[in-house]
């Protein structure tokens, strides 16, 4: 089982403006060791303090707080050594702003070091 708190953001930058989407995700994932080298995980994610900000020509976006829904995390990890792993993950999450639903789902790859 792994519990984590992180900071996740995406920023789109242009010479005449910026848009930033940021949040503080809380995750709880349970893992199953399929073998000595491979494990699978599934869990829940909740993004706190989700915020969308715009500046410059994107200033009409303003500064908005988003309401988050609990999401799902799926992760697979290959252990190169007992201390080094390569992971792939998928997160399904949704947000609401002014009555509109926004899909914040995403995928990623990671390099994990255990000490």
Task: List key phrases describing it.
single chain, 115 residues, mainly beta, 8-stranded antiparallel sheet, 3-stranded antiparallel sheet, 0% helix, 77% strand, elongated
Shape: elongated
Number of helices: 0
Mean pLDDT: 94
Number of strands: 11
Order of helices and strands: EEEEEEEEEEE
Q: How helical, in percent, are the residues? A: under 10%
Derived from helix and strand composition plus strand pairing, the structural class reads mainly beta
Q: Using the CA coordinates, give the radius of gyration.
A: 17 Å
**Main sheet specs:** 8 strands, antiparallel
Range of strand content: over 45%
Poorly predicted tracts of residues? none
Q: Between the first and last Cα atoms, what is the distance in angstroms?
A: 16 Å
What is the compact description of this entry?
The chain is mainly beta. The protein has strands spanning 2-5, 8-14, 17-33, 38-56, 63-65, 67-68, 71-81, 84-92, 94-97, 100-103, 106-113. The chain is built from no helices and eleven strands.
